[in-house]
């Protein structure tokens, strides 16, 4: 109920930190979900299933290896992986540091590589130390 209130009843545009949460909200009619954790290889099949099922299932990327994993595992039916570049705010939780020389190259690789398979949606940062 809280998520429906928070989205003004649209059931779109929510962020989850686990795939169990994503499945819960998907079962409740939410169809625009961001999984706010760089996709680990062992969770790829679950992410793929959600991406195929929902109108928009978005994931985070923070490495060239993560990008390559998504490119090697395209979604069927004309769907694309919708990704956000995850930046590390300096607390070392996840993401690539914006000052890392590879950060801009990774952003370009996502944006310009194969947009029909993997599309850059934006840049994502969560400063967990604000808790």
What does this protein structure show overall?
This is DSD1 dehydratase. It holds the Pfam family Ala_racemase_N. Residues 10-128 form the Alanine racemase N-terminal domain. It comes from Pomatorhinus ruficollis (streak-breasted scimitar babbler). One of its GO terms (biological process) is D-serine catabolic process. The chain is of the alpha/beta class. It has one domain (14-126): TIM Barrel (Alpha-Beta Barrel), CATH 3.20.20.10. Helices cover 34% and strands 24% of the residues. It is built from five helices and five strands. It has helices at residues 2-6, 19-27, 44-53, 64-71, 101-112, and strands at residues 14-16, 32-38, 56-61, 81-87, 118-125. Strands 1-2-3-4-5 form a five-stranded parallel beta sheet. β3 (56-61), α4 and β4 (81-87) form a beta-alpha-beta unit. The longest helix has 12 residues, at 101-112. The two termini are 24 Å apart. 23% of the residues are buried. The model has no long low-confidence stretch (mean pLDDT 92).
Query: Would you report the number of β strands?
Result: 5
* Overall average pLDDT: 92
Q: What topology, given as strand order, has the largest sheet?
A: 1-2-3-4-5
Unreliable stretches, pLDDT < 50, 5 or more residues?
none
SS-based class: alpha/beta
Name given to the CATH homologous superfamily: Alanine racemase
Helix content: 25-40%
How can the largest sheet be summarized?
Answer: 5 strands, parallel
Number of domains: 1
Distance separating the two termini: 24 Å
In the CATH hierarchy, the third-tier topology is known as TIM Barrel
**Which word captures the global form?**
globular
Q: What integer value in Å does the Rg equal? A: 15 Å
Q: Number of helical runs?
A: 5
Reading the helices and strands in chain order gives HEHEHEHEHE
Tell me what portion of residues adopts beta-strand conformation. Answer: 15-25%
Query: Can you identify the CATH class?
Result: Alpha Beta
| Known CATH architecture | Alpha-Beta Barrel
């Amino acid at each position: 109920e809280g998520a429906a209130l928070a989205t003004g009843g649209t059931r779109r545009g929510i962020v989850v930190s686990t795939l169990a949460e994503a499945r819960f909200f998907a079962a409740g009619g939410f169809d625009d979900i961001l999984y706010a954790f760089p996709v680990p290889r062992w969770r790829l099949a679950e992410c793929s299933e959600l991406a195929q099922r929902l109108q928009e299932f978005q994931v985070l990327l923070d490495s060239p290896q993560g990008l390559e994993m998504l490119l090697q595992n395209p979604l069927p039916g004309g769907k694309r992986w919708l990704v956000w570049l995850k930046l590390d705010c300096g607390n070392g939780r996840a993401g690539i540091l914006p000052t890392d020389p590879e950060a801009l190259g990774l952003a370009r690789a996502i944006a310009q590589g194969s947009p029909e398979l993997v599309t850059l949606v934006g840049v994502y940062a969560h400063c967990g130390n604000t808790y």
